[in-house]
Amino acid sequence: MPLLQSWRWFGPNDPISLEQIKAVGVQGIVTSLHHIPYGELWTVDEIMLRKNIIENAGFTWCVVESVPVHEDIKKRTGNYKRYIENYKQTLVNIGKCGITTVCYNFMPAFDWLRTNLLKLLPDGTYVSEFSMTAIAAFDLFVLKRKEAELCYDADQINLAKHWFENLPSTELEKLMQTLLLSLPGTDKPLTLEFISSSIEEYRNISVQQFKENLLLFIQEIAPVAEEAGIRLAIHPDDPPRSVFGLPRVVSSINDLRDIINAYPSLNNGITLCTGSLGAGYHNNCATIAEELAPYVHFAHLRNVVRDAVGNFQEVSLFHGDVDIPAVMKILVLEEEKRKRQGRTDWQIPLRPDHGNLMLDDIGRKYYPGYSLYGRMKNIAELRGLEKGIRFALGV
């Protein structure tokens, strides 16, 4: 039996309907209750309302992506204790509803960041990209963040200054809207003032302190998840490096080891996102997958090309710097191992991550990376790859 093929659906407001997803041939739905404010409790009634919609359409709700972590928890300030209690009870309620995997992230202030959402490729499709020069220019000359110049060397500052001074005003506005795009499931940008104040709140939180905040959070929620039968699957930082001086602590294999060791349990695991991890020049996704395979509870497979400076862009599934076939082989072998062990949670949910904007989807309004045809192409390629690997392995 193959990995549990799934699809991210943003709920009733998603322009892609469950009926359309049915034609893709996946079995699972990955979604969240986006309408519930961060930090607030998810009740059993709210969870079951969404679960019933999904099951009535012929799917299973296989992964909650995600239960967002309130900023107070990340900073351990304000009402963080109350929000942690809400988080724990939400996990209990999700378990009561029969959903067994929860993806979450611990990225400060922002979720994911890009500098261009419509990079045209030679094949006529569009992807997203991340430019360190654009980031530096925005940081230095738009945000004007305190001590921002300490994050860049002289060459980077000069390059950013030249780039910024020659940027048309229309392109600057597009860059601002791209960088300030809010979280998955919405298309409403955050304000510059809000982002500036959010970054300022982290100015005195070191990487070490921020990691400690994460590990303390895990030590509080992981026992609850274990009792509730929930597999926690933390998502890597995107990109896996500091941006705007913000601490990043889920960016490398060492970070992931620290997370797993914070509460040694199979219920305390990771989301293997080859796009997020792969954007780091220091990361080898196949090596990470092989070492941490028992703790991989969810997989996002996409590809990128990257460089040592920190630039990267998305590409088609088999044309980047990530060895997708090697990663898939590791996932297949891990799933087979779990079955032999008689584990009830042996199946690993897999979803196509960002897809190229292509064909009739060009010009339509989708959340960036989540168009129909691009992801449908990706899941078809992943399905074929997995079948070929299983045939070669005889499993």
Describe the fold and architecture.
The protein is 43% helix and 14% strand. The protein has 395 residues and is of the alpha/beta class. The chain folds into 2 domains: 300 residues, TIM Barrel; 84 residues, no CATH class. The termini are close together.
Question: Which features does this protein show?
Answer:
395 residues; alpha/beta; eight-stranded parallel beta barrel; 12 strands; 14 helices; TIM Barrel; single chain
Mean pLDDT: 94
Main sheet characteristics: 8 strands, parallel, barrel
- Annotation, overall tally of beta strands: 12
Helix and strand composition category = alpha/beta
Lay out the secondary structure.
Elements: E1 4-8, H1 18-24, E2 28-31, H2 44-56, E3 60-65, H3 71-75, H4 80-96, E4 101-104, E5 116-120, E6 126-130, H5 132-143, H6 154-165, H7 169-179, H8 192-200, H9 207-228, E7 231-234, H10 253-262, E8 268-273, H11 274-278, H12 285-292, E9 296-301, E10 303-306, E11 312-315, H13 324-340, E12 349-352, H14 372-393
Parallel strand pairs: 1-2, 1-12, 2-3, 3-4, 4-7, 7-8, 8-9, 9-12
Antiparallel strand pairs: 5-6, 6-11, 10-11
Helix pairs in contact: 4-9, 5-6, 12-13, 13-14
